[in-house]
Amino acid sequence: MPRPHRRMPAAQAMIVAPQPEAVEAGLEVLAQGGSAVDAVLACAFTQGVVDPMMCGIGGLGSMQVFDPATGSHTILDGLSTCPAAATPEMWERIFERECADGYGYVLQGAVNELGHKAVTTPGILRVFEAAHARFGQLEWGRLFQPAIGFAEDGWMIRPHVAAMFTMNEAAYGRRSYADKLSYTADGTRLYMRDGAPKRVGDPVHNPDLAATLRELAAHGAESFFTGNIARRIIADMAAHGGLLSASDLAGFRIREHVPLEIVYRGRRIAVPPPPAGGIVVVEMLRILERFDLVALGHNSPEYIRVIAEAMKIAGRDKEIHIGDPDFVPPPLDMLLSDIYADACAARIASGEKTALPRVGGDAKHTTTISCVDAKGQVVSLTHTLGTPSGVMPPGMGFMLNGAMNWYDPRPGRAGSIASGKRRFSSMSPTIVLEGNTPVATLGAPGGAWIGVAILQVLLNLLDWGMTMQEAVQAPRFSATTDAIDISNRIPRGVQRAVEAMGYEVKRSPMSFPFAAPHGITTWDESLQGGADPQRDGYVGMIPLRS
Fold first, then answer.
1. Mind listing the domains of the chain with CATH numbers?
2. Is residue 366 annotated as part of the catalytic site, yes or no?
3. Which listed residue (366, 367, 368, 387) is catalytic?
């Protein structure tokens, strides 16, 4: 079992996230004696301020917590639900096509993506509330202070935020982010300048969000679901024909799950079960354990072929079998069985190609946090706005999710619209254990790329013995369709060899594409972190006291 060499200063606690301000907030809480959960919540609240199209209190997500003090190892699922007013047939006649990259569905008028009808029941604050009640050490209100400070005092547009603000996804069938930023008067005032999104270095001051966060700090998450904040959200929904109702908000409940686990090369891999995306990660690992990957050579043509075929098999199985378990019970025993893994591996070994014309999935616009505290509590969180709706309830300072774009408007499918239904999400906050001891935690934003990115980081750690930083920055590839997408750092000779096997290969112009993993390893109680270089974040640590 390879283990990386220690290369970082000794630390007693560590947190990693894609935003520097958010890492700063988490470190501040850790330094004050907060638990990993406390630090992750402070980090997450701050992410919603400084990365407002990626996440926020109007969003959804999934958290995995391992707490040695209580013996708890649990998944808190806050994936959003369709409002009660949603029906399977309501958009069938205005369906045009799937988005070209598989991220959502194109409807006439983009009503499932932009505006009040695009909003699903947000659940992330219920996750934060439950996590704090069980695992927090500091007062709830204290965890909002860094976020309130950034909202009130201001923050600067960073390179990755600017890239998101100026993204135009018309080629895929989705609206530009400028349309979403300027959809409301509040969004225009906060995020636009001279008719275009704000640029790198421009300041953002959001006193409305500071006031909303103060309300949550003082009155708890209940204000969002049944109190003053809920009333203001629902008034805006009613004024603009939204689907979300007061009963949707009041009735939302998180789900708590035992992690879905497999053993891969002697280590336990713990992921969230459906409708979250862990099943894709562990199915791929079950298949790939049948191969001597190291003998193939890292990112060699045959290595890419074998792993890409496992990606396509798991992606196809997800499309066929995985939705909300309340509506479509997933055949997990079959998908993770030795018999099925053996059969899939045999097909790959024989050279058989699995057809995957397109994989449906959630939005790429997500964020993540991993944290380990001095007492060994380990937390991995992934949360998102889905495809942001553009809707900012007046005077509240935050945007609501647009996750109705994730639901298939064609009735009778695993991902079709239904009242109260949760859509499959690729989010997969992950913890790796040796016996009962956590040795790694990681997560990634990136839509359908999340699973393939986490897979490659796990292989880099567990098969190749890389450090976490080496693992997250190693060149990646992806097979979420029939084509294989490759990083611009994979040599062209390798590309030609893969094409000679009969594959279409698409080269990305980016050095670090296909999701953005961040994580921490704890080999032999030595903390080492990794932050994907494509984002603006970093690894923050509390030094080990001598």
1. 257-362+428-531 (1.10.246.130)
2. yes
3. 366
